Structure of Peptidase A1 domain-containing protein:
Amino acid sequence: MAARSLLSVLLLLACVLLEPQNARALTLSARLIHRFSDEAKALRISRSGEDYKDLGRWPQRNSMDYYHLLASTDFQKQKMKLGSRRHFQFLFPSEGSNTVSFGNDFGWLHYTWIDIGTPNVSFLVALDTGSDLFWVPCDCIQCAPLSASYYSTLDRDLNEYSPSGSNTSKHVSCSHELCESGTNCESPKQSCPYTVDYYTENTSSSGLLVEDILHFAAGGDDGPNTSIEAPVIIGCGMKQSGGYLDGIAPDGLLGLGLGEISVPTFLAKAGLTKNSFSMCFDEDDSGRLFFGDQGPATQQSTSFLPSNGNYETYIVGVEACCIGNSCLKQTSFKALVDSGTSFTFLPEALYDKISEEFDRQVNATITNYAGSPWKYCYNTSSQDLPKVPSVTFMFVANNSFVVHDPVFPINGNQGVVGFCLAIQPTDGDIGTIGQNFMTGYRTVFDRENLKLGWSRSNCQDFSDAKSMPLTPSKGTPPNPLPTNEQQSTPGGFAPAVAGRAPSKPSAASSRLVSSQFCSLRLLPLLLVLFLIVLVI
């Protein structure tokens, strides 16, 4: 301890002595001494007053004992480095791993509670694998209503974030490598602005980037849950537009994409979890979210595909499509797997083939429902949903993703009165596998191996999760029909692929440059001091 104190004092004096005005007048030199050399042994004896025999085990150079001690010391140092950063099997929001969908009231997306800052404040955020940035309403200029009275399914008011109210919030400057708008700033020291435009028409979020901590619970096979605080960069969303003012993600959006600014990226780079996460959506509108989950060994999988040479989003290649037992020719396509899109969209030519084959196989009378965004809707004579043909996406190596109920039930006063094939056409050659087709699956986004994994699940197979403190109102109709406006565009009323802030070089701050310059000039002195402390 005394040696460390001495080292700190010497470093402080050195920084004073080596200021630019003194640097030219001072020249340092050093000679390296091996820790097991004769010189090191003599220095150890002279400083400690020990007798040669009291030094204990001092290996002879190039002996087996010599190399064993070197390897042993290196191994112990490596264990210290690894032990300083604990790796967890699962990580999930401190409020619990549960997710929930509130139906039409919140745009048919899945949400979870997540705590931010110190003291921690809870936010009900939508889960979106199609974008990167995590933003919440903050120091609002134009935000959605946050009062529970505005929504029929909430039992508490939503919150607004303020960096000044959190002891752990930090300024993110325009010089930060994740500041996409840095080149437009007047000064590299000013706060970094952001604007994210989503595929849904006129839907965006803008404000300032800030750094703060997210609160997680960590679980695994070796003990009880542990509380974790993880620093991330979030968007202080001062101004929202479009769907974000109309009930979609009123309390924020958790971007889970492949970008450098997404929460999974921060967690993996901090060494807290494996670079992977899973989402599981059950048919009762509940679900689970786990960071670090790479799925069971028995799951099926397919590789993500690059876009313009880079892995930017979760795009997969479907080899063929089947309706029931009938597999259709020339039905390959690429699809974005996006939990932030409520329903599924297919390229128009493919949509026509699939919907026509579905219509041929289904045993029901086609009809129209007022306000329905879907073309193929049917009456049912019973109060229960009849058996309908499945939709199957075939991938390489004969992996198959089967959607057993690709329909949306239409409810009346006496129960189910009909159903619609919950697929819509979209322009272009890339479709979207939305949240509705992910229902009933534990879907794994393995970013480490660039693979999508899936396995059938009731979403109750995880033991290390707490219950959500919020449930849908019992007085809400089970499946109110989504409005035509909400389903008018690909991505619907939900965020699809957003513009992300790519990693790029940036001008370092003057403090960082000064610190690096000082470190370089002190290098010889640091080596000498290190050797002295090591021998001691």
